[in-house]
Amino acid sequence: MRNKGKLLLSLMLLYTLLGTAQNKDSVQLKKIYTTSLLNGKSYEWLEYLSNQIGPRLSGSVKAEEAVEWTKEELGKLGLDKVWLQPVMVPKWTRGVPEFAFIETKPGKTTKVDICALGGSVATAPGGTKARVIEVKSLEELKEIPKDSIKGRIVFYNRPMQADLINTFEAYGGCVDQRYSGALEAVKYGAVGVLVRSMNLRKDDLPHTGSMSYGDLKNYQKIPAAAISTNGADLLSSILSLNPNVQFSMNMNCRSWPDVQSYNVIGEIKGTTYPDQYMVVGGHLDSWDLGDGSHDDGAGVVQSMEVLRLLKESGYQPKHSLRVVLFMNEENGLRGGKEYAKVANEKKENHVFALESDAGGFTPRGFSLDCDDTNFTEVTSWKPLFEPYLIHQFTKGYSGADINPLKKEGIVLAGLRPDSQRYFVHHHAKNDTFEAINKRELELGAATMASLVYLMDSYLQ
Predict the structure, then answer these.
(1) What is the CATH number of the domain that holds 334?
(2) Which residues on neighbouring strands pair with residue 413, listed in sequence order?
(3) Which three-class secondary structure state does DSSP give residue 4?
(4) DSSP class of 270
(5) What CATH number corresponds to the domain at position 147?
(6) In a structure prediction context, what are the per-residue pLDDT tens digits for the chain, which is 460 residues long?
(7) DSSP character for 60?
(8) Is 329 a catalytic residue?
(9) What is the extent of the structural domain holding 325?
(10) What is the DSSP string of 402-433?
């Protein structure tokens, strides 16, 4: 009986300690969310980044303005250190607006909306005009006789799969035609490429994005453009009635030599494990059609806000916390690769990294790339997040810019907002500040700060 009494007392003490710890964490999370929603800076920062600076394509003047402005703003937060990390990035310019039309017979044309894919070459000075061959996939292209493709424009018209609830899965199921479409079409003698925009909505907005020519020589490259979903449907229906229609497109884009840019980094030194680093970040560059508010201005300001919220709440981190604003995620991933390279050269021990690059919509949870032990630890915190309607903790990909840090033992995490509206704006001219909901943005920042707090508190 005496031993049984001791065991009962020990269990009661354990539950008391666990309850005390959870109560402490609940109080801290409440403080973080309250500060973000009542006294947040993320929306104000994003308004300036989007409306006063604007599109931030790598290598552009606006990208460098964003570097200087975010460095200045981080300097106002009282961090222990703020600095710029040099990185060479590609420079590509769109030139004058693109122009395209469908010609059903001589003199009878219908204008459609297109935009050059990032990295594409220009058309000939007078434009590129040719018959069109429609395919649904790279695999279908390989099944068509080469003579049927030579001299034509290849039209990749595979839509995002609408019945997939995870829209990123739908995106992943068709983005290969955008990235590799031109490289494959060249092998069959095509003179140009059109790609259906990665968009679940029917509209007239073409969505740009990166593409690759692989190791092709300059003279082998062909122009590649995205066509809006409405334009793709129109072209497809016309082709079904008249396969001899011609498509004309005029683009003036150009690639230039690489230029120097920077990752922007701010740090709070850890009190207990100063040589162990935790990173939170997003990418500072954006495409040039909109102002990049969702992709990835939201992730930039949320990451900045994480460190501010922790400081405002009076929390002293055990590990050294860094905010990293990566340059060139969109068309090269140079910033993420350079940060990981420098960290490896300096033998810095990174134990956790969190990325926000899925828009500023309502946060739903996190995707975690880690071992089973760490995953179990993180999922044990679900009750702390449930009052804020954060309930998705899944294993999976974390983010492009932090992925180069991946190694055994590290925990990589990606903020996962509601994704149903994301691809309406992704890489299009309607990715603007007007599409941002202040409350959703602030909830995302608080959710990120809460996970950083918990990781810092319990990761040994």
Answers:
(1) 3.40.630.10
(2) 354, 368
(3) helix
(4) -
(5) 3.50.30.30
(6) 444 444 444 444 444 444 556 799 999 999 999 999 999 999 999 999 999 999 999 999 999 999 999 999 999 999 999 999 999 999 999 999 999 999 999 989 999 999 999 999 999 999 999 999 999 999 999 999 999 999 999 999 999 999 999 999 999 999 999 999 999 999 999 999 999 999 999 999 999 999 999 999 999 999 999 999 999 999 999 999 999 999 999 999 999 999 999 999 999 999 999 999 999 999 999 999 999 999 999 999 999 999 999 999 999 999 999 999 999 999 999 999 999 999 999 999 999 999 999 999 999 999 999 999 999 999 999 999 999 999 999 999 999 999 999 999 999 999 999 999 999 999 999 999 999 999 999 999 999 999 999 999 998 7
(7) S
(8) yes
(9) 31-92+257-458
(10) TGGG--TT-EEEEEEE--TTHHHHTTSTT-SG
What is the distance between the alpha carbons of residues 318 and 96, in angstroms, rounded to a whole number? 51
**Number of domain units in the chain:** 2
Q: SS in 3 state form for 183-194?
A: HHHHCCCCCEEE
> Which of 54, 234, 216, 187 lies closest to 120, judged by CA?
216
Element (H, E) at 7: helix 2-39
The verdict on 270 and 350 lying in the same domain is yes
User: Phi and psi (nearest 5°) for 40?
Assistant: -80, 160
- State both tokens at 424: 């309406």
What are the strands, taking DSSP E only, across 125-272? 128-135, 153-156, 192-196, 224-227, 246-250, 254-268
Query: Both 355 and 237 in a single domain?
Result: no
Euclidean distance between the first and the last CA atom of the chain, given in angstroms as a whole number: 37
- For residue 370, the one-letter residue type is C
Tokens (6 digits) for 124: 């000939």
> Is the Cβ–Cβ distance between 327 and 71 less than 8 Å?
no
- Are residues 269 and 248 both part of a single domain? no
The one catalytic residue in 329, 338, 355, 442 is 329
- How large is the C-alpha radius of gyration of the chain? 25
Burial 94-122 (b: 16+ CB within 10 A, else e): beeebbbbbeeeeeeeeebbbbbbbbbbb
Q: Helices 298-312 and 2-39 sit at what angle, rounded to 10 degrees?
A: 120
Query: For 413-434, b where at least 16 C-beta lie within 10 A, e where not — what string?
Result: bbbbbebebbbbbbbbbbbbbe
25 in a domain, yes or no? no
Both 246 and 273 in one domain: the answer is no
8 Å CB contact between 37 and 44 = no
pTM of the model: 0.93
